Amino acid sequence: MIIDPFGDIIAECRTLGNEVITATFTAQKLTDAGGHRYIKARRSDLYRDIIGQPHVPEQKVVWL
């Protein structure tokens, strides 16, 4: 089963055999998805030692 960032099913296998499915995604769906803004707003200063790379948080409120 392939699910898009919004939780919609894009493609699904119909049997429990050795099936392979493919789907095409666009970058726009990823940036429109709600979880994308949370990644950009993360507070890496709180866990910099764990991730090991600098990050500048970006807080954008979409609904205002």
Strand residues, percent? 5-15%
User: How many beta strands in the DSSP annotation?
Assistant: 2
**Tally of helical runs:** 3
Could you say which structural class the secondary elements and strand pairing correspond to? alpha+beta
What is the ordering of alpha helices and beta strands? EEHHH
What is the residue-mean pLDDT, rounded to a whole number? 77
Q: Number of domains in the coordinates?
A: 2
Helix content: 25-40%
Q: What is the CA–CA distance across the termini?
A: 35 Å
Cα radius of gyration in angstroms: 17 Å
Low-confidence stretches: none
Q: Assign an overall shape.
A: elongated
List the strand order in the largest sheet.
1-2
Largest sheet: 2 strands, antiparallel
Which key terms come to mind for this protein?
alpha+beta; two-stranded antiparallel ribbon; 64 residues; 3 helices
Describe the structure.
By secondary structure, this protein is α+β, with helices and mostly antiparallel strands. The chain folds into two domains: 1-29, no CATH class; 33-64, no CATH class. It has three helices and two strands, in the order E-E-H-H-H. The protein has helices at 27-32, 34-40, 48-51; strands at 2-3, 9-11. A two-stranded antiparallel sheet has the order 1-2. Strand 1 and strand 2 (9-11) form a beta hairpin. It is elongated, with a radius of gyration of 17 Å.
